[in-house]
Amino acid sequence: MTGEAWAAFIDAELQSTCKAYLEKPAFLLGHSRTEQQTTADYAGRELLELVQNAADAASEMGGSGRVLIEVTQEALYVANTGQPFRRGGVASLMTAHTSDKPTRAARMIGAKGLGFRAILNWTEAPIVSSGALELGFSRTHARAVVAKLARQNAEIAANFSGANPNLPPLLVFPAAGTELETLECGTQTVVQHARKLRQDGYDTVIAAPLGSASALKRAIEQAGQFQPSFLLFVRALEEIRIRVPDCDEKCWIKELKDNGDVSLWLECGPDTSTQDWIVRQQVGSIGEGENEREFELAIAIRSDETNKPGKLHSFFPTSLPLPFSGLFHATLELDSSRKTINENSQHNNEVLQALGRLHAEMLAELRKSARISEPLNWLIAHQEFPDALKPVSEAAWLRARDLPIVQCMDGAWRKAVNARIGPVRYAEYLPPRLFGQLARIKAANTEALLRHELGVPMVDTKDIISTLRSADLSFSERAKAIVGIAKTFPEDKHDRRLLIDIKGKEMPSTATAFPPPADEAKRHGLPDWANARFIHPELWSELLAEVSGNVVRDKIHALRGFRVVEYSAEAVISAIRSRVSELLKKNRSNPDHLQASLLATVYSLHDRTRNRPQGVFRVRCKDGQWRDITTVHLSENYGKVGRTTAALYSGQPELLIGTPHENGFSEEPDDLADFLVWLGINPWPRRITEPLPEKWRQSIVDTLPETVQVTDGNTSREVKRSDLSWGYTAKATHDTVEALDRILSGAPSEAILAWLAQDPRLDPLVPVPAFSVQLEARDNGLSKFRTYEGTLPNTVHLDIQTSAWLDCQDGQRHAPRDTMIEPGVLSALFQAPRAANSSSELEFGLDKAHWRRGLERAGVVRNLDDLPEPHVYRLLSSLPSRQIKPEVGSRLFLQILERETFDPELGGADGIAFRAKGQLPIQLEGRRVWADREGVYYAQRDDFPSAAKPHLRLLDLPSRRNAKQVLARFGVATLQKDALNLRICSLDEVEEGDSIALRSRFRDSKPYIMALRKALSPDGTHLRRFEAVQLKVARRAEMELAIDDAKIVEELDPWRHSFDDDAMIITVDDTGSFEEMMDLGCHAMADGLAELFELQSGADFVPFLTSSTDALRRAHLQRALPSLREDELASLIGGVDQAFVSPFAPDVDAETLASGPAPARTNSRGTATASMGDSGGDEHDRVPNQVSSESDPSEVELSVHQRQPQNNSSQVRAIFPRRTLRVAGPTGHVPSPIGSDPNRAADAEHWTAAFERADGRWPLLVAHLQGSRAFGCDYLSFDSEEDCTEFQRDPDRIDLVSRFIETKSGSVRFSDNEWIAANSLGERYHIYRISFSAAGRSQAQLTIVQNPSARAEAIRTERELLVDKVKGREEFDLVAVANPAEDGRSGEHVATVAAT
Predict the structure, then answer these.
(1) pTM of the full predicted structure?
(2) What is each CA distance from 692 to 506, 722, 740, 775, 1229, in whole angstroms?
(3) Distance from the CA of 525 to the CA of which of 286, 674, 1026, 1195 falls in 20 to 30 A?
(4) Which CATH architecture has domain 3-245?
(5) Distance from C-alpha of 1136 to C-alpha of 1121, rounded to nearest angstrom
(6) Where do runs of H (alpha helix) occur along 847-904?
(7) pLDDT at residue 1181, rounded to an integer
(8) What three-state secondary structure class fits 550?
(9) Is 1218 exposed, middle or buried, given 0-12, 13-18 or 19+ CB atoms closer than 10 A?
(10) Distances (CA, A) of 484 to 479, 546, 564, 566, 932
(11) Start-end ranges of CATH 3.30.565 in the chain?
(12) CB 372 within 8 A of CB 366
């Protein structure tokens, strides 16, 4: 048609339309709403609908169509070649559902004429340029036409008035000719570009000015969504070009090949590529006669890369996913949006089934032509099919069953019905050479397809097992099959006969399979009668490689259905032992052979690093009977231990194991004894538990405390020892060894010693004793027995020590406690054991070291020093009755006194009995006799006339021994001179001659002796007395003493000493030589000084007294004090007088006393510290305590870390430091672990203050005052607040102080100033030792020692006080009060006091 013809046609159509609207005004409103609804239905498919129309135009012209999609900033252009618009097409634009496409001969995509309306979502001014036709549309033009109609019809006016929101239909009123030029602003530019595209060879151009940025965005997005595959199913198109802003132009060209395949040539800017597709198409029809309808099918798969599932196509992609790989096309009935199909359409259902069959047939054809290798992969649904498309999958799978597309393990292609399938994942483990009919599977989803969708028949598991058993499988094949079966077969289908044992034989179906031992020496076959088997090592190696698991245990667990058990000697042995028990019950085998074979097998498998296997194992004894190995002992065929045990149990064959041959060992391995011990045999006499024999009952009861506490674990009871009645309220069992009495009465002494020396159970250092007594008691006959948990004697040791079995040198057997290895002078009391000989060493291993150890464990002591305290006291008590001479007894007493480690308290009841009633060796009238102890004394000193000794009952011990130990060990008091009223009644003093030299030596030596004692033990009392002592030399001195109310006057023997007030008198023989006078006189003076300083010997003073010059005395002092320098010695010698004129002289003014502790300094970590020195001590600071800089000693919220003693070994301390006074920082409080706790104690000083306040005194902290001018303690305590206040005003009022208190929380060592203060203050100086409980610092124990420097029994030479050795000490338990504020002392720590 020409342009004029088109104009006339359009004008006529408009007039006809307007006339119709005037006649039927409702049509206009209906067409408006229909246009809007149709436009909305096609939203999202705007560009696709235009391209679809272009494809239909190309189809009418025989195909080979070209399409251009161009998006500019202003408009969208879709240009195409093919049939231009016809009258019917224009009419369908103006009126919906009037398209002439269904009447055309060509195969069309669209059929309703509605798709063009989709463009109205983007524009209100579309333009069409096609052939001679040019027309356009606009909202303004449509309103103008409707306004003209409204003037002619009131209903139209009412429907489209200004107040009514209805819009006039757009496409009903086209504009053409000159009206086209004035449609909208910018229309001319769009029309011009459309005409240019027409000039480029395109027959039709649809132009749409884009009315918004969002429309432009959606146009670009839809253009980008186009894919080259669009050309595969649209036959009429062979080229598509796409132009969008800011992107390279795309051009896709389709090329058809002779075999039906398609190549797509793709160009994007400078880049080009191709896609090769295998396309299979099919045309068919449905129905008959008038109901016959044609359909078209097509399937495309890429031949040059991996395919993925896509959308179902009906020329264009729908929204329905089709889960098969590839692209699928069918002409289907679509809904109005063309996005999905009509699900209830029978036509669609039949077309989709045809599509599925085409897919299966295409795969078979491509497989046959070798274009694909795995056709089954193309039948796998990668997701669930939508309900609408399930006809495709069902038809495809149904058709595939009758096609030879299943490749089997033998390489043949079979139909599904002719192939077979095995259990799950069978292809991984079944050998292909044995199962050719099974489908070959390379993926799990392929197996699922065969099993479920294609219905391939399954092979019976029994047939699989049978085939595998009958085949000659390699270890690798067998391992894969076993592992696969373990993973996929039910456990009751696992056949152990598939396993091969270590001998290469098939395992029995009832066998328990074990991995082969790692030790190749143990990899021999197990007995034929055993139901346990080792897996062949090569098979096991392959199994480990095949089965999954992180560790071997996991791998073994995976094979549990084959009864594979993790290898361990215990497991294998347990299985074999159970089998032996089973066979013995059935009486089917020789029992001796079975038992022996079991032992030999267990030996070959055992691992002594592991625990003994469970169960009972039997060995053949020497009497021919098989017994539980745990009740039997080694015998002479099993090494030195066996020979020893055999000697112990000689004559008791039922307790000894037979020969190795009798027990199944053809050879005698070196470690056979170790194996038997591991298996449970007794290397040493077996421990048994039996009722406590009557002979030990009283001994056990005697060791109990007066009040016996027994418990059942929940409740406790107290029972008086005196109330215990054996069998009624007390009973006991004890651990002993089997036949101990027979061993001690009949076994060789050497064998017993070898046993004692080598049995580890008898080691006295073993943490838990192997033998014990278990005592139970109750308070009456109606209550239950409860256990006593205290320590009781070891009855095994008692039996060994008290039985006469030890061969001694006198040819007799004695009890070990009556013998001694080296009795020496005590040979009359103790027999010496017979020494070990070479034959004992060869037979029992009893060399000298073991002989000595055996004697020690038997209770034989080396000498008196090793004898236990109870034994010593029993021995002392027995001496008179054994007719032992008093001289021998005196030597024994002296040896006991010289034992350093002897503790009388350990003597127990024996010690108490001896100290109360035991007889003593004494000197009486010049004779040594045994005497009762009443009136017996020990003469520690020899400073009274020897003529007086016959009048006294004196213990026969040398003088100058430790009198305290004599009293403690023997219960003999020291003879006191005061008790004898001893005094000098006559003195013949020597004033001239050699006596002058003696007095001069004494006077010149005093500074050096004073310096020595000051350095070693600065006891002020002794030093002050020594300073006042004067020496008197007499040729004769008479002494008067009273004994039993009789006065005796005797002369003091020559070269003896005595004290008379401040005079030390020595007697001399002035008829002798000068050398004799000097030597014996100096020794007499030294003895006197030893008495003064309470020393046992005056030997340290002799060098100073015998020296004739100060240089020599100084040299002796240097030797005695090698650590001091010359200047220190000079200070020590020269400062003696100054140091002790006023040893304690604190010098503290009131201002310093009132100022309190110095401010704490901050350490490098930002925490406050204070230097807490030794209170009043030397200049060396202690380790700083970390406290708050604002802490106050009376507060308890903070506390000081425990002070550590400073190591002063590298510092030289002057004996007499210059007198100083330093003010140290404060102490503080230990922070509570759960926050601030005002009741939490700080350090020991705070507990001291709390105790003093609780006891009614007023403490004053002076620990921060340090140096020689300080008080030498931590606290001053006053009896009243007034005294405390007055002292703070005048610190010189030392007389107001009630207690000088030094607080210690650990060991008690004195600094110089503390020691001086303690010696000077005497009864007013106190040590407070604070011991905190293990539960924390909320409880503490206080021990108070008054006048500590006078506690000589507890003072060490390094000035350490052993508080627990102090008699008469006071002890208190301190507990913090919950609320200190309640007693009116808020902010202070208060203690409750409980004296103990």
Answers:
(1) 0.48
(2) 59, 19, 14, 9, 57
(3) 674
(4) 2-Layer Sandwich (3.30)
(5) 16
(6) 848-858, 869-878, 886-898
(7) 37
(8) coil
(9) exposed
(10) 8, 9, 15, 19, 97
(11) 3-245
(12) yes
